[in-house]
Amino acid sequence: MTGGSGLLGHGFQAIAAEYADRQFVFSGSKDCDLTDRDRTIRFVGEHKPDAIVHTAALAGGIQYSTCHPATLLRDNVLMNLNIMEAARAHGVRKVIETLSTGMYPPEAPNPIREQYIHDGPPHDSNYSYSFAKRLIDPAIRAYRSEYGLNCIGLVSNGIFGEHGNFRPAESVMVAALIRRFFEQRDSAAPVVIWGDGSPLREYTYSRDMARAFMWCLDHYDDAQILHVGSTEEHSVRDTAFMIADAMGIDRSRVVFDTSKPAGILRKATDNSRFVSRSGFSYTPFRVGLERTIQWFVENYHVPGAVKL
């Protein structure tokens, strides 16, 4: 598994004991530079895996995406294709590539279905990362057609959980709010959140996402990309209040700055193809959120435990 030290990688580590018949190898950027084709091929050859779950990616917030669009496009495309090349070269039986719901056109109708992937340009704020993720779709079809590589593409939405990235420029909304509320918990100052709090967002607990990937590893072999995230939605406002409540912070301190942009109102996804096949059920958002907050609070002051 690539991206083994990331949020989803830790989700896999947490559930690995449930798959006692499997041997997992968790690799991170320190183990292999996946942008280097030759090194990637050698690395895969050294381990001779039966399957590769490729979750490694270079990503960041709007500021990072704006400043480094070429880096995001180049490195993600190279990593995705190098993994496929390594799998082809060594006869790996199955490969999972990871896509993101952020790649879809902003005008895509809700709920978003898998076939909307190429129905318009992605949002300008993250176009290079989005196009890198979109390229996985034709790459899967091409490698399946020419080389017979059993490669599938799974689409995740926002992932949260223990061992997440809480750095402001890189974190998703849930992680960013958890850190902000925690660091201001002993202050009387308002906690300011951009926008009016109305946008709705879907988030999936990392361990659920890992289990969904494992189900697909064993049971899904179609070239069509597949949504595997939870469709439970909560507004930014409600999420902020949940975090405030969990940390004992008075809701009156939460202030929404309506002079700032709120973002896209809704990005709901349709996961019916996955759920109808798997019968999968997800951890309720509030339950996963409380577990994440508890882990963050317990590990905040532990050196190196939290990505801050």
Write the layout of secondary structure elements.
Elements: H1 7-15, H2 37-47, E1 51-54, H3 62-67, H4 69-90, E2 94-100, H5 127-134, H6 136-147, E3 151-156, E4 158-160, H7 173-183, E5 191-194, E6 200-205, H8 206-219, E7 226-227, E8 233-235, H9 236-246, E9 254-257, H10 272-278, H11 285-299
Parallel strand pairs: 1-2, 2-3, 3-7, 4-6, 5-9
Antiparallel strand pairs: 6-8
Helix pairs in contact: 1-8, 2-4, 4-5, 4-6, 7-9, 7-11
Question: What would you note in describing this structure?
Answer:
There is one protein chain. The protein has 308 residues and is an alpha/beta fold. The protein has a single domain (7-165, 201-233, 267-299), classed as NAD(P)-binding Rossmann-like Domain (Rossmann fold). It is built from 11 helices and 9 strands. α4 runs parallel beside α6 (136-147), α7 (173-183) packs parallel to α9 (236-246) and α7 (173-183) crosses α11 (285-299). It is globular, with a radius of gyration of 19 Å.
Shape: globular
What is the percent of helical residues? 40-55%
- Number of beta-strand segments: 9
> Which value, in Å, is the CA radius of gyration?
19 Å
What is the CATH C level class, in words? Alpha Beta
Order of the strands making up the biggest sheet: 1-2-3-7
Which architecture does the CATH hierarchy give at level 2?
Answer: 3-Layer(aba) Sandwich
Q: How far is the N terminus from the C terminus?
A: 24 Å
Structural class: alpha/beta
CATH topology: Rossmann fold
